[in-house]
Amino acid sequence: MAGKFEVYQDRGGKYRFRLKASNGQVVASGEAYETKAAARKGCESVQNAAAGAAIVEADS
Known about the structure:
This protein has one helix at residues 36-51, and strands spanning 4-9, 15-20, 26-29. A hairpin with a 5-residue loop joins β2 (15-20) and β3. It contains one helix and three strands. Helices cover 27% and strands 27% of the residues. The chain has a single domain, classed as Double Stranded RNA Binding Domain (2-Layer Sandwich). The radius of gyration is 13 Å and the shape is globular. The protein has a three-stranded antiparallel sheet, covered by helices on one side. By secondary structure, the protein is of the alpha+beta class.
């Protein structure tokens, strides 16, 4: 099974997303959004950006 995005409502009533690996571990999470639709759009943005993203080492 591939990883999956989960959209959920936090305790403050905002919507967030998290990306879970196939083993269930959370590997990324998104910021707070006002609507569920905006959180879903955030998931789509990550999917689109990650497809061609390079892996680089950050300076310490």
